[in-house]
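User: Is it possible to get a 3D structure for a protein together with its bound compound? The compound here is 4'-deoxy-4'-aminopyridoxal-5'-phosphate. I've pasted both below.
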Amino acid sequence: MSQLWSPFVKNLVPYVPGEQPKMTRLVKLNTNENPYGPSPKAVAAMQAELTDDLRLYPDPNGDKLKQSVADYYGVKTSQVFVGNGSDEVLAHAFHGLFQHGKPLLFPDISYSFYPVYCGLYGIEAKQIPLDDEFQIDVDDLINGGENSGIIFPNPNAPTGRLLPLVAIEKLLQHNTQSVVLVDEAYVDFGGESAIALVNKYPNLLVTQTLSKSRSLAGMRVGLAVGHEDLIEALERVKNSFNSYPLDRVTLAGAAAAFDDREYFHETCNKVIASREQVAAGLAALGFDVLPSAANFVFARHPQKDAADIAAALREQGIIVRHFKTERIAQFLRITIGTDEQNQILLDALQSL
Ligand code: PMP
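Assistant: Yes, that's possible. Here is the predicted structure of the complex:
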């Protein structure tokens, strides 16, 4: 078939998402989904959309959802972009903001989709090593040389480590000529959003997802907040690619999920409390656990091989994520589940 492919396709290295096993009754702690369901108000809003109106196209601009996001963060709707999962929002940012013929800077250990988008959009990737504590050092990014942009998750994935806003602000003060994109997929589990800084720094773009803290991974909704000019670039790319990335059901559910602040805070707080219990339980079993501000923990055992632990857990129907990447090959990334799931995990580890 390959002679029918566009030449660049041969060199693509696609992203490999975490497994979505078909078996039931698993303790699935491998893809950072929320253990609790979405807001009941979001579910009701989605059900209310299942009418004959589905024959009509959805709002191409997603105005109602943008309004809910703008209200939540106290910004203008023209500062909000919405898309089909934050992966799509990130893709449009790579395409629309990072193609300047210079390298894009990101940490050596971070979201593994970044190098994939670099490959797709022909952007040179320059990976800046995390320090020995697996922390981003903004001075290393500042000294990273000429760039067409800087991107990192905060909290970082898969480490879970959080960078404080003062450090992000220092980076923005030094890096004024290219976009700094803060990927806040996990920020609601213990971080402070850099959206607070977007009116001060016109080159700051913040992306978020409804897949984690708002428990809508199955609906695919992501967003970006930043200066209107940055948002306009994303809109231009989006409207040259797919005018209707979000369907009617999804738009209604996502807006309702943003509006139901009570449920959101309640479920985030439950996940945070469980995370602290899991971290303590793992530490009691001898694991080194990195401090996490996300809905997962990143941990290694000084004596036991991570791949062996993952395989043994799997035999007991418990799935966690193991990356065969240098530097982190001895770590496991474990999503926080319900308290019952977390206990099953800790019991299984104890018996190993
Ligand atoms: N950024 C980071 C750091 C992530 O871990 C993920 C989830 N895989 C995403 C973005 C994408 O999330 P989604 O496309 O579900 O919004």
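Residues 261-284 form the longest helix (24 residues). The CA atoms of residues 219 and 313 lie 29 Å apart.
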